Amino acid sequence: MRGPPGGGGGIAHDGDAVGLGVSTPTRPQLNILDLVPVLEDGTAAEAIAATVDVAQHADRWGYGRYWMAEHHNMRGVASSSTAVLIGHVADKTERIRVGSGGIMLPNHAPYVVAEQFGTLATMHPGRIDLGLGRAPGTDPLTSRALRRNDMAAMNFAGEVEELIGYLGEPDPDARVRAIPGEGTHVPVWILGSSHGGAQVAASLGLPYSFASHFAPAMLMSALQVYRDRFVPSTEPGGFDAPRTMAAANIMVADSEKEAERLFTSVLSRFHGIITGRRGGVLKPEGDIESLMGSWSPAERQAVSEMIRVSFVGTPDQVRDRLQEFTDATGVDEVVVTCGAYDHDDRLRSFELLADAWS
């Protein structure tokens, strides 16, 4: 598809990804990141019901993981109680792994997260993932309401190790034990959009997922840092070699023009983020060029930078561009998110991609 006017970069793929020199012999595993979007004229209850429906379809279509992300105080996002939603979705699905993409660990005591995810893993053995990040997932005022621990954010690696310890082998002599939790060895991923998370994941021998769907600037360098500094782990849940994932926005439709029209809802959402007007998901509006043409040059540039890892078009177009992206980055898995306004359009987008990817 065409790049946005004045954007300084195309939407079709992340041009900076080309040239890393890493290739994958087969298509990476395809996963879904669901932000549980609330429509501008909709409700949180409707958003949660839509998430369950998408997850059930994704389960049948062969997606590997279904992740939800912790956000707070956002009118357009209903995923604040992430662990509760994970349990709800896992109850309603059969095969697909369900997890967090992610839990913002400094917002919580590691012990509480261990109990929550240990309980989830006990109810749904072999199907729960725990992705961890250290960003607040909200604004400063709401961070204070969450009793966020800034010192914990500074000691993110130590907090992760403490959490993993609670999920490890049972220790009858331990004074504090996570029950349920101990012995579940819930798989832990480190999430990030900079070198910090990459360094933590590498030092602990854990898999690493990069948030390139909204912050792609450091994607390639963070992946390189992670791979260069990776220390194999012999601990349960650790890896003996790097394991990577990257996130991307997608919008797939039967025609490129229709996909671009639907993608205007995503562009409007990113525009709302940079202008401080965060509301619900808006209906698609016209076309990409006319929508972005109504913004200031600075706004166009900012949104264009955020959505560089976005793939919009027909099934074949999106499959091929997504394959180019995964070949260039060398990631083992890719997690895609679709911000279509209409539920049927979102379902159709995921279905068309699953068919094309397979």
TrEMBL record:
Gly residues bias (residue ranges): 1-12
InterPro entries: Bact_Lucif_Oxidored (IPR050766), CmoO-like (IPR019949), Luciferase-like_dom (IPR011251), Luciferase-like_sf (IPR036661)
Annotated GO MF terms: oxidoreductase activity, acting on paired donors, with incorporation or reduction of molecular oxygen
Residue ranges, annotated region (Disordered): 1-20
TM region(s), chain numbering: none
Coiled-coil portions: none
GO cellular component, one term: cytosol
Domain Luciferase-like: 41-328
Family: To bacterial alkanal monooxygenase alpha and beta chains.
Matching PANTHER family: LUCIFERASE-LIKE MONOOXYGENASE
Protein name stated in the entry: Luciferase family oxidoreductase group 1
Lineage of source species: Bacteria, Bacillati, Actinomycetota, Actinomycetes, Micrococcales
